[in-house]
Design a protein that fits this description.
By secondary structure, the protein is mainly alpha-helical. Helix content is 48%, strand content 0%.
Length: 89
């Protein structure tokens, strides 16, 4: 992650963009942006992750959705069909 942070810093310098102005324009904490650019954050979740995505340091991946619903294999029949013994549900 430190290499990506260094590359982002180089892009800031090359474009002449001020880090503080960029942070304010994107609604991020200036100190947190500087911390991400210094490579001091893991950027796994929360605002530091959002900063890393906005800077192009990490790809944007959508969060996992709901778990797939297990299909219902049983019908409304009693267990007699399965084991030969009638049981009430």
């Amino acid at each position: 992650m430190k290499e990506r942070a260094q590359a982002a810093r180089i892009r800031f310098e090359a474009s002449g963009t001020n880090i503080s102005e960029w942070a304010r324009a994107h609604g991020f904490s200036i100190s947190l942006v500087q911390s991400v650019l210094a490579g001091n954050r893991a950027c796994r979740r929360g605002e530091s992750h959002a900063i890393a995505v906005a800077l192009g340091m990490k790809p944007q991946v959508s969060p996992p959705g709901p778990l797939p619903v297990e299909p219902e294999y049983r019908t409304e029949a009693t267990r007699t069909d399965i084991v030969g013994i009638e049981t009430a549900r």
